[in-house]
Design brief:
This protein has 314 residues and is an alpha+beta fold. It has two domains: 66 residues, no CATH class; 219 residues. It is built from twelve helices and four strands, in the order ααββααααααααααββ. A four-stranded mixed beta sheet has the order 1-2-4-3. α3 runs antiparallel to α12, α5 runs antiparallel to α6 and α11 packs antiparallel against α12. The protein is globular, with a radius of gyration of 24 Å.
């Protein structure tokens, strides 16, 4: 039978190389493993091992991230209300720290970190898929790279350079007035075709996923792209027509845009962590992913991430 598609659970020896056998039987709870010590030449500690097992619940993680997002959105509403109605521009530096339309602040740090977490989870899946030589392993690798770029973009605002590039290579669009209203933020000229091509390229990849994972991926993508492109284009139109003359409307559009993006990533992270614990009759997904940290000498430390399995009906 082809190694790529196994209909039975692999033997313990076959699992070695993907997940260390010593970890497979570990119970899913926070645990400090026993210390292994041996005597040598009358001395103590020829070998000492420490192992930490961390249980990760996809649902609890998603709820925690959603709560953080709600706090950030609420912080934006409060600080922008103070700025608009009471005339405070900084309020001791608090207002810029919660402005969703600013850079180098708390919301930017969170968004970049969440995207980086999604990239790390995708990389974990990709590594195991590559070891199993799965058909769509490279699709997972590409996804990990894309989300790593999105994390960098969130911190460095790389996409805004796309507007300058569009104006540089397509000046005729400006001359004929095409880059106005909804396309006033010209980077969407590149963003929309990329999303369409990406969707077509990943259509078969989505179809092969489990039903729950596929639904969550699609939902997360619609919400994220709806904010990143859809609400962004509405904001571009408002800015083109009124400039900064409607600060309340502009602030609310920013709230919807960033809120959609943040909640889209929360759903995507939930989908990934749930997929990591997914089991079906035709495929056994390892519950233990070794992030691994080994230190030379007599002490060896390992950090093991355990992803909770999906219960039926969860």
């Amino acid at each position: 039978m082809n190694k790529k598609h196994k209909d039975v659970h692999p033997d313990p020896e076959e699992r070695q190389g993907v997940i260390p056998q010593s970890l497979v039987t570990q119970p899913p709870r926070l645990k400090l493993a026993h210390h292994d010590r041996t005597q040598r030449d009358g001395g103590l500690i020829a070998n000492e091992r420490r192992q930490v097992t961390l249980v990760l619940s996809p649902r609890k993680l998603a709820l925690t991230l959603a709560l953080v997002v709600l706090c950030l959105l609420l912080g934006h509403v409060i600080t922008q209300s103070v700025k608009i109605y009471y005339g405070y521009n900084t309020l001791g530096g608090i207002i810029p720290e919660f402005d969703l339309n600013s850079e180098n602040n708390i919301p930017t740090w969170y968004s970049s970190s969440a995207l980086l977490l999604a990239s790390a989870l995708l990389a974990m899946i990709a590594l195991v898929k590559l070891q199993w030589q799965e058909t769509y392993a490279r699709h997972w690798v590409v996804l990990a790279v894309i989300f790593l770029f999105l994390s960098m973009d969130e911190a460095a605002s790389i996409h805004e350079k796309g507007s300058e590039l569009a104006l540089l290579i397509m000046p005729s669009l400006v001359d004929f007035g095409y880059l106005s209203r909804y396309l006033y933020f010209a980077w969407v000229v590149f963003g929309v075709p990329f999303v369409l091509l990406f969707s077509l390229a990943y259509l078969r990849f989505l179809i092969h996923l489990p039903a729950k994972t596929r639904s969550l991926f699609v939902l997360a993508g619609i919400i994220y792209v709806g904010g990143a492109l859809g609400v962004e284009m509405l904001g571009a139109r408002d800015f083109y027509l009124y400039g900064e003359g409607r600060p309340l409307v502009h602030s609310m559009l920013i709230l919807w845009e960033e809120g959609f993006e943040m909640f889209g990533i929360v759903i995507f992270i939930y989908a990934l962590t749930s997929y990591l614990g997914f089991r079906s009759s035709s495929y056994l997904w390892p519950s233990f992913l070794v992030l691994g940290l080994s230190q030379p000498g007599t002490i060896q430390r390992r950090l093991v991430l355990v992803v909770s399995e999906i219960r039926s009906g969860e």
